[in-house]
Design brief:
Blueprint lengths: L7 E3 L3 H18 L2 H8 L1 H4 L4 E3 L13 H20 L20
Antiparallel strand pairs: 1-2
């Protein structure tokens, strides 16, 4: 959905990254998830693969991408959505590589 492109961002703010990491740590603690453990083990790389959906009312908050990064992130989201339509990776959705604005298609 093209309208969602304005609401989908990479997790780039420090507060957003901390919030995401805390959620994944809690998930690991409660479930013993090997995927969560893998993400946390390679956090510096893995964090760049996550997307967040933020309605306009929350886009100014510290857990959402900083305004300077929004335009380039949106362009990246559109490019990834176009690329995802051409090829599919079995690990893309596992690692957050697909763009939620593309309707969940890898």
């Amino acid at each position: 959905n093209a309208d969602n492109v304005r609401n989908v961002f990479r997790v780039t703010s420090t507060a957003g990254q901390e919030q995401l990491k805390t959620l994944i740590e809690k998930h690991l603690e409660r479930t013993g998830s090997t995927v969560a453990a893998s993400v946390l083990k390679d956090w510096d790389t893995a964090v760049g693969r996550f997307w967040q959906v933020a309605p306009p009312s929350t886009q100014g908050m510290d857990v959402v991408a900083v305004p300077e990064a929004v335009e380039s992130t949106q362009k990246s989201a559109m490019a990834m959505a176009a690329s995802a339509n051409k090829k599919s990776s079995p690990t893309a959705s596992r690692w957050g590589g697909s763009n939620p604005a593309s309707g969940g298609r890898p």
